[in-house]
Amino acid sequence: MKKLIFCIQNELIESVLRDNRVINSDTILIRDNKDLSLEYIDSIKPDIIFFPHWSCKVDESIVRRFKCIAFHSAPLPFGRGGSPIQNMIIRGYKETELCSLLMREEFDTGPIYIRTPVSLKGNLEEILVRIYQAISEQIKAIKADEIIPIEQEGEAVIFKRLRDEDNKINFEGDINKISDQIRMLDSKLYPSAYINIGDYKIEFSKSSIEEDVLKSEVKISKLKK
Fold first, then answer.
1. 139 and 22 in contact (C-beta within 8 Å)?
2. Alpha helices, DSSP H only, in 31-104?
3. Three-state secondary structure call for residue 107
4. Burial profile 5-29: b = 16 or more Cβ within 10 angstroms, e = fewer
5. DSSP class per residue in 185-219
6. 98 and 202 housed in the same domain
7. Range(s) of the domain holding residue 135
8. 49 lies in the same domain as 73
9. CA gap 205, 194 in Å, rounded
10. What is the pLDDT of residues 81-137, one digit of tens each?
11. Of the residues 114, 143, 159, which one is the last residue of a structural domain?
12. Distance of CA 157 to the CA centre of its chain
């Protein structure tokens, strides 16, 4: 039996992986970047380290010595970089790809094991659950078979990670684009889309469009000075 480590940073993906019986009470889990040390990994000597949703840079010594498999939510090499889901939605795509790839020292450049299409409909929480379901199936396939990853081909397009300033709603777009700005951040794992008016911050969630009218829940709080 292969010895595996799973590096996981949020409860949602951990729940989905447990529901799909990818991990259990005996699984070796790393939840904090400070615990991901070469000394600790070397003591376990895993066959594979999976990174289902991991936002921290992995030390090059670990990447070079062990088989590290990451997952990226864009059709690589298109969409290397940060915030792939949001960047795909901003560009008007209705579907993305979930790619499992062998990690290399340069981000998102490794060969691809499996590509799975994933719908970008709904709010971010719904999209994440679909992506995490796809990750579960890909991990099962990789564990079961000796899949040979294929090098990426084509021109690379680099995505920039969203900053807080990018989460401000731009009301110059049409109503569908405004809705996209809200739904692409609508998850408890991400900061909400917002605007600042005077001394207050207005955050938006649960957007829907009915007869050309956008409806949304809002939270109003005083700006911290």
1. yes
2. 38-44, 60-65, 84-90
3. coil
4. bbbbbbebbbebbeeeebbeeeeee
5. T-STTSPPEEEEETTEEEEEEEEEEETTEEEEEEE
6. no
7. 4-159
8. yes
9. 9
10. 999 999 999 999 999 999 999 999 999 999 999 999 999 999 999 999 999 999 999
11. 159
12. 17
Same domain, 205 and 146: no
Measured over the CA atoms of residue 110, residue 111, residue 113 and residue 119, the dihedral's sign is positive
What's the N-to-C CA distance of the chain in angstroms? 55
pLDDT of residue 145: 86
In the DSSP assignment, the letter for residue 111 is P
Q: In this structure, what CATH number is given to the domain that contains residue 206?
A: 3.10.25.20
11 sits in which H/E element: helix 11-19
Residue where one domain finishes, among candidates 120, 136, 159: 159
What per-residue confidence (pLDDT) applies to 58?
94
**Nearest Cα to Cα of residue 100 among 28, 156, 52, 47:** 52
> Within this chain, do residues 84 and 195 fall inside the same structural domain, yes or no?
no
| Residue 132 sits in the same domain as residue 56 | yes
**Listed residue (159, 175, 218) closest to 193, CA to CA:** 218
Separation CA 156–CA 80 (nearest Å): 7
| Contact residues for 124 (Cβ-Cβ < 8 A; gap 6+) | 85, 183, 184, 185, 186, 187, 189, 190
Low-confidence ranges of the chain (pLDDT < 50): none
Q: How many domains does the chain have?
A: 2
CB 182 within 8 A of CB 205: yes
Q: Can you read off the two tokens belonging to residue 60? A: 């090059």
What pLDDT does 55 receive?
87
Structure tokens at 112: 């691809």
